[in-house]
Amino acid sequence: MAQWRRMVQAHGHRLLHGAGAEEPDRSTGPTPSLNRLDALVEGFAAGQPVRWSLAGYPRPLPGPVDVVAYRIIEEALTNACRHAPGAPVAVRLRYDTTGITIEVRDEGAGPAPSGGSANHTGQGLLGVRRRAERLGGTFSAGPRAGGGFTVRVALPAPEEVAE
After folding, report:
1. What is the pLDDT of residues 30-72, one digit of tens each?
2. Which of 60, 96, 113, 148 is the most exposed place for a label (fewest CB within 10 A)?
C-alpha cells in the first residue's frame, strides 16, 4: 500500500494528464480525494441533511479516479443544494472488483414540471459526464419517479490481483 501511494505521489501528474483528468489546483487547498469525503459532506450538511454510505471493500484508487470521484460528488451535492434546497441527500459509494460506483440522490420536491425536459442536464452535469467518460466510465442522471433526482457514475478502477 505504501509503495502504491509513493508511486502515485511521484507520478500523479503524469497519470492525470494521461487520463485526461484535470490536475488539482494545489494553491487552493488539499488535493481532492475520497479520503476527504467526510469534510466534503460536512460542508454541505450545514444547510442540508446529507448522509453517505459505503458498500464493498474500500481501497486506494488511482489518482485520477480518486480526484474525479471527489469532484463528481462535489458537483452532485452542489446541484442538490441549488435545485432541491433543504431536501435530504444520500451519497452512496460501492466498490467492486471493476471499480467504484457513485450515486447521489436527493429527495427534492418532485419530478420535473410538465413541459420541462426530464432529460435536461445543466452545464454542471455535462461536466460530470465528461469527467466520467474521459476515464472510461458511465454516467446517468435524471428525476426519480417518486420525486427527487439521481446522479449515478461508474468509474473503472480494476482491483489488482495479488500474485
Report:
1. 889 999 999 999 988 877 899 999 999 999 999 999 999 999 9
2. 113
Contacts of 40 (CB under 8 A, 6+ apart): 70, 73, 74, 77
Side chain identity at 111, as an amino acid letter? P
Q: For residues 106 and 160, what is the distance between their CA atoms, to the nearest angstrom?
A: 33
Cβ distance 158 to 99 under 8 Å? yes
Write down the residue that cell numbers 460506483 correspond to: 101
Q: Could you tell me the CA-to-CA distances from 159 to 96, 97, 125 in Å, in that order?
A: 8, 5, 28
Name the DSSP class of 28. G
* Separation of alpha carbons 75 and 78, rounded Å: 5
Q: b/e map of 129-158 (b: 16 or more CB within 10 Å)?
A: bebbeebebebebebeeeebbebbbbbebe
pTM: 0.75
